[in-house]
Write a structure and sequence with these properties.
The protein has 309 residues and is α/β, with parallel strands linked by helices. It is 39% helix and 20% strand.
Protein backbone atom coordinates (compact mmCIF):
# COMPACT_ATOMS: atom_id res chain seq x y z
CA UNK A 1 0.00 0.00 0.00
CA UNK A 2 1.47 3.31 -1.05
CA UNK A 3 1.67 5.91 1.67
CA UNK A 4 2.47 9.28 0.14
CA UNK A 5 4.59 11.74 2.05
CA UNK A 6 4.05 11.00 5.70
CA UNK A 7 6.26 9.79 8.48
CA UNK A 8 5.63 7.13 11.09
CA UNK A 9 6.90 7.84 14.54
CA UNK A 10 7.19 5.24 17.28
CA UNK A 11 8.87 7.80 19.50
CA UNK A 12 9.53 11.42 18.75
CA UNK A 13 12.07 11.57 15.95
CA UNK A 14 11.89 14.29 13.32
CA UNK A 15 10.46 13.95 9.83
CA UNK A 16 12.99 14.31 7.06
CA UNK A 17 12.15 17.01 4.57
CA UNK A 18 9.43 18.58 6.70
CA UNK A 19 8.78 22.22 5.87
CA UNK A 20 9.54 24.17 9.04
CA UNK A 21 7.12 26.98 8.20
CA UNK A 22 4.07 24.74 8.10
CA UNK A 23 1.90 24.15 11.14
CA UNK A 24 1.77 20.54 12.31
CA UNK A 25 -1.05 18.16 13.17
CA UNK A 26 -0.40 14.91 15.03
CA UNK A 27 -2.22 11.74 13.96
CA UNK A 28 -2.14 9.20 16.81
CA UNK A 29 -3.34 5.72 15.80
CA UNK A 30 -3.99 2.82 18.19
CA UNK A 31 -2.09 0.31 16.04
CA UNK A 32 -0.63 0.09 12.56
CA UNK A 33 -0.60 -3.71 12.75
CA UNK A 34 -4.03 -3.79 11.13
CA UNK A 35 -4.74 -2.60 7.57
CA UNK A 36 -7.94 -0.86 8.64
CA UNK A 37 -6.05 1.46 10.98
CA UNK A 38 -3.32 1.99 8.41
CA UNK A 39 -5.99 3.36 6.06
CA UNK A 40 -7.41 5.52 8.86
CA UNK A 41 -3.99 7.01 9.58
CA UNK A 42 -3.00 7.41 5.95
CA UNK A 43 -6.27 9.12 5.06
CA UNK A 44 -5.94 11.55 7.97
CA UNK A 45 -2.37 12.43 7.01
CA UNK A 46 -3.26 12.92 3.36
CA UNK A 47 -6.18 15.24 4.16
CA UNK A 48 -4.09 17.27 6.61
CA UNK A 49 -1.39 17.70 3.98
CA UNK A 50 -3.96 18.68 1.36
CA UNK A 51 -5.13 21.39 3.76
CA UNK A 52 -1.60 22.77 4.02
CA UNK A 53 -0.29 21.17 7.23
CA UNK A 54 2.60 18.89 8.00
CA UNK A 55 1.13 15.69 9.45
CA UNK A 56 3.05 13.30 11.69
CA UNK A 57 1.77 9.80 12.31
CA UNK A 58 2.28 8.08 15.67
CA UNK A 59 1.73 4.35 16.29
CA UNK A 60 0.58 3.54 19.83
CA UNK A 61 0.97 -0.22 19.24
CA UNK A 62 -2.29 -0.85 21.14
CA UNK A 63 -0.44 0.18 24.31
CA UNK A 64 -1.82 2.97 26.53
CA UNK A 65 1.64 3.76 27.91
CA UNK A 66 3.01 4.21 24.39
CA UNK A 67 0.12 6.55 23.59
CA UNK A 68 0.92 8.56 26.72
CA UNK A 69 4.55 8.88 25.55
CA UNK A 70 3.34 10.20 22.21
CA UNK A 71 1.19 12.81 23.93
CA UNK A 72 4.12 13.95 26.07
CA UNK A 73 6.14 14.44 22.88
CA UNK A 74 3.29 16.19 21.05
CA UNK A 75 2.48 18.59 23.90
CA UNK A 76 6.13 19.66 24.06
CA UNK A 77 6.54 20.10 20.31
CA UNK A 78 4.15 22.82 19.17
CA UNK A 79 1.46 20.84 17.36
CA UNK A 80 -1.75 22.69 16.48
CA UNK A 81 -4.16 19.73 16.82
CA UNK A 82 -4.30 15.99 17.48
CA UNK A 83 -6.35 13.46 15.53
CA UNK A 84 -6.70 10.56 17.95
CA UNK A 85 -7.64 6.93 17.48
CA UNK A 86 -7.46 5.91 21.13
CA UNK A 87 -6.14 2.78 22.79
CA UNK A 88 -8.59 2.84 25.71
CA UNK A 89 -11.90 4.62 26.25
CA UNK A 90 -11.04 5.56 29.83
CA UNK A 91 -7.25 5.69 29.85
CA UNK A 92 -6.94 7.85 26.74
CA UNK A 93 -9.14 10.50 28.34
CA UNK A 94 -6.21 11.46 30.59
CA UNK A 95 -4.10 12.23 27.51
CA UNK A 96 -6.89 14.16 25.80
CA UNK A 97 -7.51 16.25 28.91
CA UNK A 98 -3.80 17.07 29.16
CA UNK A 99 -3.88 18.25 25.54
CA UNK A 100 -6.97 20.36 26.22
CA UNK A 101 -5.25 22.02 29.19
CA UNK A 102 -2.30 22.80 26.90
CA UNK A 103 -4.65 24.41 24.39
CA UNK A 104 -4.25 21.66 21.77
CA UNK A 105 -7.62 20.45 20.41
CA UNK A 106 -8.21 16.70 20.10
CA UNK A 107 -10.48 15.10 17.51
CA UNK A 108 -11.32 11.43 18.06
CA UNK A 109 -11.61 9.06 15.11
CA UNK A 110 -13.44 5.71 15.29
CA UNK A 111 -12.70 5.02 18.95
CA UNK A 112 -14.53 6.90 21.67
CA UNK A 113 -13.22 8.30 24.94
CA UNK A 114 -15.49 8.48 27.95
CA UNK A 115 -14.82 11.94 29.41
CA UNK A 116 -17.11 14.67 28.04
CA UNK A 117 -15.28 17.73 26.83
CA UNK A 118 -11.84 16.12 26.58
CA UNK A 119 -12.22 16.06 22.78
CA UNK A 120 -13.62 18.80 20.58
CA UNK A 121 -15.43 16.28 18.36
CA UNK A 122 -15.69 12.50 18.19
CA UNK A 123 -16.27 11.03 14.72
CA UNK A 124 -17.52 7.49 15.32
CA UNK A 125 -19.01 4.64 13.37
CA UNK A 126 -22.57 3.77 14.39
CA UNK A 127 -21.39 0.39 15.62
CA UNK A 128 -24.57 -0.49 17.48
CA UNK A 129 -26.90 0.07 14.52
CA UNK A 130 -24.43 -1.58 12.17
CA UNK A 131 -24.47 -4.72 14.27
CA UNK A 132 -28.26 -4.68 14.46
CA UNK A 133 -28.24 -5.02 10.66
CA UNK A 134 -25.55 -7.69 10.88
CA UNK A 135 -27.55 -9.54 13.54
CA UNK A 136 -30.66 -9.49 11.37
CA UNK A 137 -28.71 -10.96 8.48
CA UNK A 138 -27.11 -13.52 10.81
CA UNK A 139 -30.57 -14.70 11.87
CA UNK A 140 -31.66 -14.94 8.24
CA UNK A 141 -28.60 -16.94 7.16
CA UNK A 142 -28.86 -19.24 10.16
CA UNK A 143 -32.58 -19.76 9.47
CA UNK A 144 -33.41 -18.95 13.11
CA UNK A 145 -31.54 -21.86 14.68
CA UNK A 146 -28.05 -23.11 15.44
CA UNK A 147 -25.13 -22.84 17.85
CA UNK A 148 -22.64 -20.01 17.62
CA UNK A 149 -19.65 -18.49 19.39
CA UNK A 150 -18.58 -14.85 19.64
CA UNK A 151 -15.14 -13.25 19.50
CA UNK A 152 -14.96 -9.91 21.30
CA UNK A 153 -12.38 -7.18 20.75
CA UNK A 154 -10.48 -5.15 23.33
CA UNK A 155 -12.08 -4.88 26.77
CA UNK A 156 -11.27 -1.16 27.06
CA UNK A 157 -12.71 -0.19 23.68
CA UNK A 158 -16.34 0.98 23.65
CA UNK A 159 -16.67 -0.36 20.10
CA UNK A 160 -16.26 -3.90 21.43
CA UNK A 161 -19.37 -3.62 23.56
CA UNK A 162 -21.45 -1.52 21.16
CA UNK A 163 -21.00 -4.16 18.46
CA UNK A 164 -21.77 -7.03 20.80
CA UNK A 165 -24.85 -5.32 22.23
CA UNK A 166 -26.19 -4.44 18.79
CA UNK A 167 -25.76 -8.02 17.61
CA UNK A 168 -27.36 -9.52 20.71
CA UNK A 169 -30.27 -7.07 20.66
CA UNK A 170 -31.45 -9.03 17.63
CA UNK A 171 -30.07 -12.54 17.98
CA UNK A 172 -31.11 -13.03 21.60
CA UNK A 173 -34.74 -12.70 20.54
CA UNK A 174 -34.59 -16.12 18.87
CA UNK A 175 -34.62 -19.14 21.18
CA UNK A 176 -33.33 -21.39 18.43
CA UNK A 177 -30.00 -19.56 18.36
CA UNK A 178 -27.69 -20.53 21.23
CA UNK A 179 -24.36 -18.93 22.12
CA UNK A 180 -21.94 -21.65 23.25
CA UNK A 181 -19.01 -19.40 24.17
CA UNK A 182 -17.88 -15.78 24.17
CA UNK A 183 -14.24 -14.73 24.51
CA UNK A 184 -11.97 -11.79 23.82
CA UNK A 185 -9.47 -12.06 20.97
CA UNK A 186 -8.44 -8.37 21.19
CA UNK A 187 -9.19 -7.56 17.52
CA UNK A 188 -6.11 -9.68 16.66
CA UNK A 189 -6.00 -12.23 13.83
CA UNK A 190 -3.50 -14.61 15.41
CA UNK A 191 -5.22 -14.58 18.78
CA UNK A 192 -8.55 -15.26 17.06
CA UNK A 193 -7.06 -18.36 15.45
CA UNK A 194 -5.98 -19.65 18.84
CA UNK A 195 -9.30 -18.87 20.51
CA UNK A 196 -11.37 -20.53 17.78
CA UNK A 197 -9.14 -23.61 17.84
CA UNK A 198 -9.84 -23.94 21.58
CA UNK A 199 -13.55 -23.30 21.09
CA UNK A 200 -13.80 -25.99 18.40
CA UNK A 201 -12.13 -28.47 20.73
CA UNK A 202 -14.53 -27.61 23.54
CA UNK A 203 -17.65 -27.49 21.35
CA UNK A 204 -18.08 -29.94 18.49
CA UNK A 205 -21.37 -28.46 17.30
CA UNK A 206 -20.49 -24.86 16.36
CA UNK A 207 -22.46 -23.63 13.37
CA UNK A 208 -21.30 -19.99 13.20
CA UNK A 209 -18.93 -17.43 14.67
CA UNK A 210 -19.62 -13.72 15.06
CA UNK A 211 -16.42 -11.68 15.21
CA UNK A 212 -16.19 -8.09 16.44
CA UNK A 213 -13.81 -7.17 13.62
CA UNK A 214 -12.55 -8.53 10.33
CA UNK A 215 -9.05 -9.36 11.52
CA UNK A 216 -10.61 -11.79 14.00
CA UNK A 217 -12.96 -13.07 11.30
CA UNK A 218 -10.02 -13.90 9.04
CA UNK A 219 -8.17 -15.59 11.91
CA UNK A 220 -11.30 -17.58 12.75
CA UNK A 221 -11.70 -18.65 9.13
CA UNK A 222 -8.08 -19.84 8.96
CA UNK A 223 -8.60 -22.00 12.06
CA UNK A 224 -11.89 -23.34 10.71
CA UNK A 225 -10.27 -24.13 7.36
CA UNK A 226 -7.38 -25.95 9.06
CA UNK A 227 -9.94 -28.05 10.95
CA UNK A 228 -11.76 -28.89 7.71
CA UNK A 229 -14.98 -27.28 8.93
CA UNK A 230 -15.22 -24.43 6.41
CA UNK A 231 -18.38 -25.90 4.88
CA UNK A 232 -20.11 -26.11 8.25
CA UNK A 233 -19.12 -23.08 10.32
CA UNK A 234 -20.27 -19.71 8.97
CA UNK A 235 -18.13 -16.64 9.68
CA UNK A 236 -19.37 -13.06 10.19
CA UNK A 237 -17.09 -10.06 10.67
CA UNK A 238 -17.15 -6.28 11.08
CA UNK A 239 -14.97 -3.49 9.60
CA UNK A 240 -14.99 -3.88 5.82
CA UNK A 241 -11.32 -4.80 5.37
CA UNK A 242 -10.10 -5.78 1.92
CA UNK A 243 -9.27 -9.30 3.12
CA UNK A 244 -12.78 -9.83 4.41
CA UNK A 245 -14.46 -8.28 1.35
CA UNK A 246 -12.45 -10.65 -0.86
CA UNK A 247 -13.37 -13.56 1.41
CA UNK A 248 -17.06 -12.68 0.99
CA UNK A 249 -16.60 -12.62 -2.79
CA UNK A 250 -14.99 -16.06 -2.59
CA UNK A 251 -17.75 -17.51 -0.41
CA UNK A 252 -15.53 -17.95 2.65
CA UNK A 253 -17.19 -15.32 4.88
CA UNK A 254 -20.91 -14.57 5.04
CA UNK A 255 -20.98 -10.85 5.80
CA UNK A 256 -19.32 -7.87 7.43
CA UNK A 257 -20.22 -4.35 8.51
CA UNK A 258 -18.50 -1.79 6.31
CA UNK A 259 -17.11 1.10 8.29
CA UNK A 260 -15.68 4.07 6.47
CA UNK A 261 -12.23 4.95 7.85
CA UNK A 262 -11.48 7.37 5.02
CA UNK A 263 -14.64 9.35 5.77
CA UNK A 264 -13.87 9.50 9.50
CA UNK A 265 -10.25 10.51 8.97
CA UNK A 266 -10.98 13.17 6.36
CA UNK A 267 -13.78 14.61 8.50
CA UNK A 268 -11.52 14.80 11.55
CA UNK A 269 -8.80 16.59 9.58
CA UNK A 270 -11.28 19.07 8.08
CA UNK A 271 -12.81 19.85 11.48
CA UNK A 272 -9.35 20.34 12.99
CA UNK A 273 -8.56 22.80 10.20
CA UNK A 274 -11.78 24.72 10.88
CA UNK A 275 -11.02 24.82 14.62
CA UNK A 276 -7.48 26.07 14.05
CA UNK A 277 -8.92 28.84 11.87
CA UNK A 278 -11.31 29.93 14.59
CA UNK A 279 -14.55 27.96 14.33
CA UNK A 280 -15.92 26.86 17.71
CA UNK A 281 -19.47 25.64 16.99
CA UNK A 282 -18.42 22.10 16.06
CA UNK A 283 -20.63 19.10 16.96
CA UNK A 284 -19.55 17.02 19.96
CA UNK A 285 -20.25 13.74 18.12
CA UNK A 286 -20.63 12.82 14.48
CA UNK A 287 -21.99 9.32 13.78
CA UNK A 288 -20.99 7.59 10.54
CA UNK A 289 -23.41 4.95 9.23
CA UNK A 290 -22.24 1.36 8.71
CA UNK A 291 -23.26 -0.66 5.63
CA UNK A 292 -24.07 -4.37 5.69
CA UNK A 293 -21.94 -6.14 3.07
CA UNK A 294 -22.89 -9.66 2.01
CA UNK A 295 -22.59 -11.86 -1.07
CA UNK A 296 -25.48 -10.08 -2.75
CA UNK A 297 -23.97 -6.58 -2.69
CA UNK A 298 -20.23 -7.18 -2.22
CA UNK A 299 -19.53 -6.06 -5.81
CA UNK A 300 -20.28 -2.50 -4.67
CA UNK A 301 -17.51 -2.41 -2.03
CA UNK A 302 -13.74 -2.46 -1.91
CA UNK A 303 -10.69 -0.81 -0.33
CA UNK A 304 -12.48 0.18 2.85
CA UNK A 305 -15.46 1.87 1.25
CA UNK A 306 -17.93 1.94 -1.60
CA UNK A 307 -16.46 1.41 -5.04
CA UNK A 308 -17.38 4.95 -6.12
CA UNK A 309 -15.11 6.34 -3.37
Amino acid sequence: MAMACFCLLAGGSSCKGRTASKERIAVVISTLNNPWFVVLGQSAVERCEALGYDAVLFDSQNTPSKEAEHFDNILASGYKAILLNSTDADGSAVNAKAAARAGIPVFCMDREINVPGACVTQILSDNYSGCISLGEYFVEVMQYRGNYVELLGLVGDNNTWARSRGFHSVVDCFDGLKMLAQQNADFDQNKAMEVIESMMQAHRDIDAVFCGNDAMAMGAYQAILAAGKQNRIKVFGFDGSDDCINAIREGKVEATGMQFPKTMARTAASLADQYIKGRRDLPKKLPVAVDLVNRQNVKNYGHFGRIEE
